[in-house]
């Protein structure tokens, strides 16, 4: 977490929700070299990953009471991992996943 002096604090403006429909021109998941991987048992639902992700890739699944990652729009910047205080998120090499990035199939 940031240690912001009181006189420099600003209120959170908004959280931009992830696209509710497919936005092919906004897909950045194929940029990713590393994928954030969640260990649910370590997650305390602090919502840092939801707030700090610049692409609003993490959303709260209220029914399941857990955060879920929309991998299509996750570019692998690792901000969420750095902001996760409980180490519930770790990075894993993308090409180790069977469904690894589509960067070779979908050039931009
Ligand atoms: S790695 Fe970056 S883009 Fe992906 S979920 Fe984390 S903060 Fe968002
Ligand atoms: S930042 Fe970490 S602990 Fe907080 S909700 Fe996200 S995964 Fe869970």
List keywords for this structure.
108 residues, mainly beta, Alpha-Beta Plaits, two-stranded antiparallel sheet, two-stranded antiparallel ribbon, 2 helices
Topology readout:
Blueprint (H helix, E strand, L loop, with lengths): L33 E5 L9 H5 L5 E4 L4 E4 L9 H5 L5 E5 L15
Antiparallel strand pairs: 1-4, 2-3
Q: What would your notes on this structure say?
A:
It is a single chain. By secondary structure, this protein is mainly beta. It has a domain at 38-96: 2-Layer Sandwich (Alpha-Beta Plaits), CATH 3.30.70. The protein has helices at 48-52, 79-83, and strands spanning 34-38, 58-61, 66-69, 89-93. Strands 1-4 form a two-stranded antiparallel sheet. It has a two-stranded antiparallel sheet with strand order 2-3. The longest helix has 5 residues, at 48-52. It is globular. It starts with 33 loop residues before the first strand and ends in a 15-residue tail after the last strand. It binds iron/sulfur cluster (2 copies).
């Amino acid at each position: 977490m940031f240690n912001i002096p009181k006189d420099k604090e600003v209120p959170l403006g908004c959280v931009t929700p992830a696209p509710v429909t497919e936005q092919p021109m906004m897909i950045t998941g194929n940029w990713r070299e590393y994928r954030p991987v969640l260990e649910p048992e370590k997650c305390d639902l602090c919502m840092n990953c939801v707030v700090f992700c610049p692409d609003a890739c993490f959303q709260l699944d209220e029914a399941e009471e857990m955060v879920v990652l929309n991998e299509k729009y996750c570019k692998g910047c690792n901000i969420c991992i750095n902001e996760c205080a409980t180490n519930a998120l770790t990075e894993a090499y993308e090409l180790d996943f069977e469904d690894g990035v589509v960067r070779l199939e979908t050039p931009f």
